[in-house]
Amino acid sequence: MEFEPVIGLEIHAQLATESKLFCTCSTEFGKPANENTCPVCLGLPGALPVTNRKAIELAVRLGLATHCTIRLDSQFARKNYFYPDLPKAYQISQYERPLCENGWVEIQVNGQSRRVGITRIHVEEDAGKLVHEGVDPKASYVDLNRAGVPLAEIVSEPDLSSAEEARLYMEKIHSLVTYLNVSRGNMEQGNLRADANVSLRVKGSEALGTRTETKNINSFRFVRDAIAYEIDRQREELAEGRPIVLETRLYDSLSKTTHPMRSKEEAHDYRYFPEPDLPPIRLEQAWVDAIRASLPELPDEKAARYQRDFGLSAYDVGVLVADRAVAEFFEGVVAAGAAPKKAANWVMGDLAARFNEDKAGPADLKFGPDRLAEMIRMIEAGEISSKMGKAVFEELYASGKAPAEIVREKGLAQVSDESALEGIVDRALADNPEQVAQYKSGRDKMLGYFVGQVMKATGGQANPQVVNDLLRNKLAP
Ligand code: ADP
Ligand code: MG
Ligand code: ZN
């Protein structure tokens, strides 16, 4: 029998608020343990939660951008379970009346658009964190700085059919939440974590197979690798006639394998009930409409505009729009006068390579888009060669200085003046009589050899076109 994978993701995105979901404690990352706490997020008796309006606004923004229906009377619910990082012994989440439902996003798979359904987006509080290294190596400690930090949980339909699609989907969600400023999307700080639900079904059948849920995966690559492993593992189990066990698993990024953690809990295990300490969230349609009107241009719209207005390929625009800051930098370079294709090549090529190496982005740059545009103009005008352009770019990146100044300081200007080059051309011919003879006897390729000699002698600064013309003239019979 042939099987096909069925995948659905639950993604937790930390909402970019200053304070926690139900108290005024700071959400700042990296503070000393338990500094960001108060009676509410410590779960002390009698302390009462008050909903953070900003968190609701951010989740609504995300819901609108993902084509969800926004519920005007949504409600928080208690999800009861015991764990030492959860001081109240319940998490305030949403269950029956989530804030957003029935949306979708699009991903590009092998050049084709595919829709992935969003079942729901609800708001909930994060838990704290257990720390296993401390004064007493045998003890466990708890840090509640993260307890009560607002999350949006984005639950997808089981619409994904490969590990690679799941990765693309998670990247799309990351792109959206950062475009919208709904989440800072900092993966290293755990701002975006995915639970991957994976099952196999008989190819072509409608019925879903039993799934496993691999928890808390915090990188795009890990999502892909964890799912790829899980698909293979389940395939083997089925091939050997063993049933898939409905369970929660953990991903180990070192061995690239998943391991059982616990049997899967079900909704009734949590004894959900409406949160009695909080009133329902009542939204006014006008407020939601105002949020909709304030949405920025989103990645799909940007991509369509770049293709239409700039004539760039689908691949190029996909790369350019993924990160909003990069896209805006690129647009700045074009606005400053550079041809879109040239601007795209520099931004996706040399600049992206430096960003990768330095784990940096446009916000870290020492120069604005106008400087890159100026450098591109100098190359187009022949003031510097494209090879020298690379050197100018490196210096631009390092110092942020104006390209013209860099060229002056480093003496990188391209020499196009015939009178300045003639002597060097003459010497290249005089020094190589044998090659001249070969050229004259019909070996046209020797021309390239002479160009190379002149470029070497000028440290790459000679304008190759001018050198070519000079050589042809001098070698003409
Ligand atoms: P829970 O919250 O207990 O994990 P949900 O019903 O909310 O349960 O489902 C969570 C996720 O699991 C959703 O993203 C959904 O698309 C996905 N899912 C449900 N059934 C399957 C299945 N058989 N195979 C793969 N994914 C599934
Ligand atoms: Mg789940
Ligand atoms: Zn608090």
Question: How would you describe this structure to a colleague?
Answer:
This protein has 15 helices and 16 strands. The chain is an alpha+beta fold. The chain folds into 3 domains: 3-289, no CATH class; 297-410, no CATH class; 418-475, Orthogonal Bundle (Arc Repressor Mutant, subunit A). The strands form 4 sheets. The chain has a 9-stranded mixed beta sheet with strand order 2-6-7-10-1-11-12-13-14. Strands 5-4-15 form a 3-stranded antiparallel beta sheet, with no helix packed on it. A hairpin with a 4-residue loop joins strand 13 and strand 14 (257-263). The longest helix has 20 residues, at 220-239. The termini are far apart. The relative contact order is 0.10. Bound molecules: adenosine-5'-diphosphate (ADP), magnesium ion and zinc ion. The site of magnesium ion (MG) has 3 residues, from loops.
